[in-house]
Every structure is written in structure tokens, then in C-alpha cells.
Amino acid sequence: MKVLVINPGSTSTKVALYEEEREIVKTEIAHDIEALKKYKSIIEQFDLRLNAINDWIEQNNINLKEIFAIVVRGGLIKPVQSGTYLVNDIMLEDLRKGVGGEHASNLGGLIGRAIGDKYNIPVYTLDPVAVDEMEDVARISGLPELPRKSQSHALNIKACVHRYARENSINEENLNLVVAHMGGGISVAAIKGGKIVDVNNANQMGPFSPERTGSLPSMKVVDLCYSGKYSFDEMKKKVVGMGGMVAHLRTNDAKEIERRIQNGDKKAKLVFEAMAYQIAKEIGRMAAVLKGDVKSIILTGGLAYSKRLIEIIIDMTSFIAPITLYPGGDEMEALRDGALRVLRNIEKPKIYS
Asked: Into how many domains does the chain fold?
């Protein structure tokens, strides 16, 4: 059984073809940041990304008639339980509307269905960004009309929890962890009994990242919104897409920034270290949620390959718990496995409504 996996990220789209568990081909399609700037919203990138994937399919001589299932990274839909879902018309409508906000993963279901409908292939998603296991006390903010919402890189966070439990022969129901997914956006989650009981919303809170502002001084944000300098759409893009390292250093490429640091760029060094500092501080906050009962701190995502970043975080947080490194992410394999469990009738797909 062949499975096609599609995983849209903020500046790239990962695609892979598997036959059962065997990887046939896997690629990360990079999208030019200047080209992405031209779009006012994530949804407007649909044609650009779909065309890039169709080109990849053609270049790799993939016969879509042989595909048993397409599985995509889930987006900002309404809050759902963890699990594998059929991408139905109701979900597509919510993805188009952006009911939970804007995120590159919103394109996953739309692109998957565009391909799947043409060849009569079922499309699934697994542990979308909207997975909500948050405790009620964590939902309260300083304004009742602005509750905190559970939105995170749940797919990789959950994959890391499964992996740690499997490798250490621990039942997930007895497992407390802090997991920091560090990529284009950064999610730091408190895991209690295998569930994400608290997490910063990577689009709106927590550490700044390669392209997101994270938490900001709220009164200064109000001033900026009413300064007359920026439109509504421009302000949204400043916060998600053009914030963080992009705003400070005009790039979201951590490798490029580390090269600048090596060449003596003091500003790049300070900004990079500030991001690591904020990640470590957020880990400390989530450790407090778990009252210090933390089996391990897991560092994952693309930024976990950075030795410089990891050293700073370890120096600040290793007193809490041992550090476990899962650099990159198991997202593609996790998506594949979710589809295979459905194809093998191990689990039934959940229906979004």
C-alpha cells in the first residue's frame, strides 16, 4: 500500500511517498521567502504550493492511481481530540475560513483533497495543530474575551511522546515531559500523563522564533496598531511570518545566522542567543506547570540541530531534568503511520464536525 504524505510548513512543503513503512522518495520543497511575501494570506499560497507538489510528482514519475491514501499535516480547525481524521468538506470549509487562525498547515487538507478528489484517493490528517487537551486553569488570560487556546505543533510533539515512551518502556499515562518543538514556529508543551495539558500558542505567545514574534509588550502592540503605519493585514504578517529573526536579521535561516556569528556579527549573536534564552525560559514555565515532576526535557524540530542553540538551552534548563534530543522531527513518519493504521483497520478514522 502506497501512501503520499504532504506537510506544509511556513517556508517549505515536505512531501514523501511510502510503500508501507518503506520510504521511496522524500523531499523538502523550499519556497522563496520573497515570493511568499507577495501573498496577503496563507490560503493565497494554494496554487503556488499545489503546482510545486504536482511538479515534484511528475519529476519522480509517481503514479497517483497506485496511491491508497494521502495524509496531510492538519491545520487550525476547531478544537479536536488527538487522532486520525478523514479530511471532509466541513473541515475544508473551516480551513478556508481559518476558524482557528492562519497557519501554513491550513493548506494541507486543501492541497490533499485537490489531488485526492481527482484520483478518488481518501485524504486523512493526524494530530492537527488544533489538538486540545489543555486543562481549564490554563485557558484563563487577563481578558475574559481573549482566552488562551491550545494550538501547537501537536503532530511532532505527540510523535516525540510516543517515541520516548517506546524507547524507555514507559506507559504514556505515567509520563510527564516538557517538549520544545523548535522550527519556523516554537511550541513548548507540558505533557502530563501523555497529554498536552498546557502549551504556548506558537502564533501568538511564547518565545520568538525564526519568523514569529512570540509574546510582545501588549501596550506597545496597541500603540503600533493605531499608529496609522500599518494595515490590519500588515500587522498580522508582522506578527506571524515577518517577525522574530526575520524582523531583526532579514532572514529565517538559522544556518545563515550562525555563519554570520562565526564571521563576527555581534547583532546576529545577540538575537540568536535571545531566542535560545526565551525558549529556555518557556521550558521553565512548563516545568512549573508540572510542579517540577519532569522525566525529561525533549528538544526537537529543525533548530535542535544547532549545537550553539542547544548548548544555551541545556545550560539554562538541565537542572530541571535530563535533556533528550530528537532533532528534526518524526512528522512525516507519524503521518504515514496514522494513515497505515487506518488502511490496516487497526483504528477507524474520526469524523470532524
From this structure: 2
